[in-house]
Amino acid sequence: MKFATAGFFSTLLVSVSCRAIQRRADAAYPADFKPNFSHQNSVTINQPLSVVWPVLGTNEGLGKWILLESIASNFSTQTLDTVNVNGNLEDAVHLAPAAQGGQGFPRQAFTFTETVKIIPGLSFTDIPVQLTGTFTWDATRNVSLYETTNGSGILVKKVRTFSESNGVTTVSEQINGQCPFLEQPIVQLTTTSAHNQQMALYPTLFQ
Ligand SMILES: *[C@@H]1O[C@H](CO)[C@@H](O)[C@H](O)[C@H]1NC(C)=O
Ligand SMILES: *[C@@H]1O[C@H](CO)[C@@H](O)[C@H](O)[C@H]1NC(C)=O
Ligand SMILES: *[C@@H]1O[C@H](CO)[C@@H](O)[C@H](O)[C@H]1NC(C)=O
Ligand SMILES: CC(=O)N[C@H]1CO[C@H](CO)[C@@H](O)[C@@H]1O
Q1: What ligand 4 atom has the least distance to the C-alpha of 36?
Q2: Alpha carbon distance, N-terminus to C-terminus of the chain
Q3: Which N-terminal stretch is annotated as signal sequence (predicted)?
Q4: Residue 109 exposure: Cα atoms within 13 Å on the Cβ side
Q5: Which atom in ligand 4 lies closest to the alpha carbon of residue 188?
Q6: What is the pLDDT of residues 33-45, one digit of tens each?
Q7: How confident is the model at residue 119, as a pLDDT?
Q8: From the CB of 86, is ligand 4 less than 6 Å away?
Q9: Which of 91, 147, 171, 178 has its CA 20 to 30 A from that of 155?
Q10: Does the CB atom of residue 37 touch ligand 4 within 6 A?
Q11: 50: domain CATH number?
């Protein structure tokens, strides 16, 4: 998911003051998060949830599945903390402050680079986008939340859910993101192809 992440409203945010930031920590997503690109996909993995969950649900396999995306490189983990969420994990976490004393959901911060190909085959048109993100998970409900931003202009939120039937696990992902209006067509296109390409490779993590 390429451009995925969140930064877009940072300029706005910075001028909005601490109060808004506090409110956001509560409400999770800011009121001005208006996604303008999205994608949904799912994949089945021939393994029980107890095997799939640690790899795709927690931070254990984070770098591995992020780097399955052909446009991803230079992955690195950052701080591991926890976050309190008022309500369900997927309803929002973005920029919420770390909780004290390990309360709440575990949250792993990371960075990586996505190289957006504007004209396939012409590498000089490639745009490297540095992303920072967090991966947060709820082991009680088997839900994970992936959020990234380039620091300004692009914000990506991806919710991953799991279900098991007869020892086979279905992993579903819903991406909602916001980017500058003029970039929406290329971002939507890149998101769709990168997301499909990446998820098709999830089963290879279990072979
Ligand atoms: C979550 O997954 C575990 C197996 O990893 C399973 O035992 C449990 O029932 C699941 N919980 C929910 C709410 O689906
Ligand atoms: C790789 O990521 C680090 C941050 O972890 C960053 O400082 C560095 O510039 C990145 N290198 C490339 C080639 O993108
Ligand atoms: C993030 O992406 C937006 C949209 O492409 C761009 O305007 C902005 O300069 C980028 N920010 C950084 C820090 O690269
Ligand atoms: C594809 C998509 O989600 N487009 C949305 C972009 O944002 C505008 C305004 O927020 C929506 O009307 C579009 O549906």
Answers
A1: 6
A2: 24
A3: 1-27
A4: 13
A5: 1
A6: 889 999 999 999 9
A7: 78
A8: no
A9: 171
A10: yes
A11: 3.30.530.20
Lowest mean pLDDT among 5-14, 95-104, 163-172, 184-193: 5-14
Residue nearest to atom 4 of ligand 2 (CA): 111
Residues in the chain: 207
Ligand 2 mutation pick, 111, 114, 129, 132, max ligand atoms within 8 A of CB: 111
Residue-wise pLDDT for 117-160, tens only, equals 777 777 788 889 999 999 999 999 999 999 999 988 889 999 99
Considering every ligand atom shown, identify the ligand nearest to the alpha carbon of residue 179 and give its number.
3
Asked if the structure places residue 30 within a domain, the reply is no
Number of independent structural domains in the chain: 1
Residues 6+ apart with CB under 8 A from 156: 1, 2, 3, 4, 5, 6, 133, 146, 147, 148, 149, 175, 176, 177, 191
Q: How confident is the model at residue 85 (pLDDT cuts 50, 70, 90)?
A: confident
